[in-house]
Amino acid sequence: MAVSDWAASPQDWQEALDELKEYVAPAFKRLEQRASAGAFIDGLLSGVERKTGWMLAEEAGLARPYRIQSLLGRSSWSANALCDVVRRYSCEALGDPDGVLVVDETGFLKKGVHSVGVARQYSGTAGRIENSQIGVFASYASRWGHALIDRQLYLPKAWANDPERRKKASVPDDVAFATKPAIATEMVAKLLDEGLPCAFVLADAVYGSDARFRRMLEARGQAYVLAVRSNHTLRIFEDWQLTQTDPETMIAGLPHDAWYALSAGEGAKGQRLYDWARVPLSHTSEVGFSRWVLARRSLRDPDKQTYYFVYARSEISLAEMAAAAGLRWTIEECFLRAKDDLGLDHCEARSWHGWHRHMSLVMTAAAFLVRLAAEQRRTAFSKPNKTSPSLEPVGTC
């Protein structure tokens, strides 16, 4: 949701924004930091095209960008503390028993070699190997909207094992190399420990193909729908024999009537219809839970298929699996809006804490817009003869 989409009066907007600033104020140690953070957030929500230090300072009426740059660099405050506060703010607005937690990464293209974590690596943003930073993010989606609620920069091995580069970029001593799935495993475990209401955890094949990530969720009794590669190795023990197969082979053996046309949710042009099928897995699981291989194929091009591992209550229907799988797009919407409207990819800071501060401040501005939209939605559906919306999150971040 862009700033221009908010239809309330300027006074209502300002009152809500003042409430946000008061809510996040405890994350900052000094009044000067709170004032600078407020100016930073105002700039992110403004129509300034580039959310750089100079542009945000000019928008705030400052002669120089010192205060803005100091907020990201020299001043002392915790980006993680701000992220925690913003997460509570978002989840107060969006929390719902049917909500889902989504994990994905996004790339930030860079020209130089000095920004923390920058390397020649695959970026989904560019669709190829580029000089970039990669951040692992978590978002929360419910019938009331969706928002980014956590983030961590991926630190390649070349950075993690280079003491001089670490020192220059202020990488904390306790940050070691971790794969993206390992980062996601720790991140999601923390979020679930906080009691986030979550019906499913969703992620793409980078995370779904990681056994440790899946085991962590299953140990918690947490349902998931995780994309996997078509050739992911599966070892199945049946009739006292161990058979090796993969999702593509299992699904290929299904008869024609095993496929059903079902919706993966509402899209810009209506319902997003695909053919869906599933195969139960014989692996033992917790009482009341089962595992499946789920497949989605295009109605126009049957050879175009996507595969998932599902762990959920045994009575779950195929339609419920399809609906859950279709919600992974919400985090992509969050990335798109945060980059296009709020400058998520405009970070100039080169340090570890500068990157996390910028991301947390952008997430703060995004959460403000999400909460406004969620309150509008709740008001609309509290009127007589209105029913609560289904879990088709609105296009806001």
Report what the structure shows.
There is one protein chain. The protein has 397 residues and is α+β, with helices and mostly antiparallel strands. It has a domain at 220-309. The protein is 39% helix and 24% strand. It is built from 14 helices and twelve strands. It has helices at 10-24, 31-45, 53-59, 66-72, 79-94, 157-160, 163-168, 180-193, 205-208, 211-219, 247-252, 318-325, 329-342, 352-381, and strands at 100-109, 119-123, 128-142, 145-153, 200-203, 224-228, 234-238, 241-245, 260-267, 270-280, 289-297, 305-313. Strands 1, 2, 3, 4, 5, 6, 9, 10, 11 and 12 form a ten-stranded mixed sheet that branches. It has a two-stranded antiparallel sheet with strand order 7-8. Helix 2 crosses helix 14 and helix 3 (53-59) packs across helix 4 (66-72). Residues 1-6 and 393-397 have low confidence and may be disordered.
Radius of gyration: 22 Å
* Protein structure class: alpha+beta
Report the end-to-end length measured between terminal Cα atoms.
6 Å
The count of strands amounts to: 12
Q: Biggest sheet, open or closed, and with what strands and sense?
A: 10 strands, mixed
Could you spell the SSE succession in H and E letters? Answer: HHHHHEEEEHHHEHHEEEHEEEEHHH
Tell me, rounded to a whole number, the average pLDDT: 91
Low-pLDDT sequence parts: 1-6, 393-397
Q: So how many helices?
A: 14
